[in-house]
Design a protein that fits this description.
197 residues; alpha+beta; Heat Shock Protein 90; 42% helix; two-stranded antiparallel ribbon; 5 helices; 5-stranded mixed beta sheet; 7 strands; 2 domains
């Protein structure tokens, strides 16, 4: 990866943490519920830690593996426009920062093209699967949404490419699920680590 490509990737990845911090700044004065404020602060803190890791790590796809509850990781992304379905603890052996980065890119892509996103997390045949579904226009027939540089309006064309690279570095897969022309579903699958942690 050239230095120019690396800088473009870093600039792309700065968007989600900055958006989380902006949400905290704008929502804090009007938030009265302690639990809601705690949730915003936790999200801002996680975003800041992710940003620090992304900028300090010389290898954008390096992994620090540990047992990670994929249901909890998905639930941390829930908002009024993002819903999460999933029960219990579904563990994978992963780098939580990188996994959160991949999921955040999938959610951001869905919200860029639609108004709502749903993450459905479940165990399936020795894997933990997350299906990310939006209500946007869907992808053109024959399009490869994961190709680097594939871009929609307001997009750099790096988010889905990076999400797939992160998932594949974990030994998993990320694919477009064929379906109706309205909306899109992306399926992330990682090997289950249910016997750990």
């Amino acid at each position: 990866m050239s230095e120019r490509e690396r800088l473009a990737l870093l600039a792309h990845e700065l968007r989600s943490p900055v958006a989380a911090l902006e949400a905290l700044v704008h929502a804090a004065p009007g938030v009265t519920a302690t639990e809601a404020r705690r949730g915003l602060l936790a999200r801002a803190l996680a975003a800041a830690r992710d940003l620090e890791r992304l900028l300090s790590d010389p290898d954008l796809l390096s992994l620090r593996l540990e047992p990670v509850d994929l249901v909890a990781t998905a639930r941390a992304l829930a908002t009024d426009r993002v819903s999460v379905r999933g029960e219990g603890r579904l563990l994978v052996r992963a780098d939580e920062t990188r996994l959160r980065q991949a999921l955040a890119n999938l959610v951001a892509n869905g919200l860029r093209h639609g108004t709502r996103v749903e993450l459905a997390v479940e165990a399936r045949h020795g894997s933990v699967v997350v299906e990310v579904t939006d209500d946007g226009p869907g992808f053109d027939v024959g399009a490869d949404p994961f190709a680097r540089g594939t871009s929609g309006v307001g997009s750099s064309g790096l988010g889905l490419w990076l999400a797939r690279a992160i998932v594949e570095a974990h030994g998993g897969s990320l694919e477009l699920v064929p379906g109706p022309s309205q909306g899109a579903t992306l399926r992330l699958a990682l090997p289950s680590a249910s016997g750990e942690g």
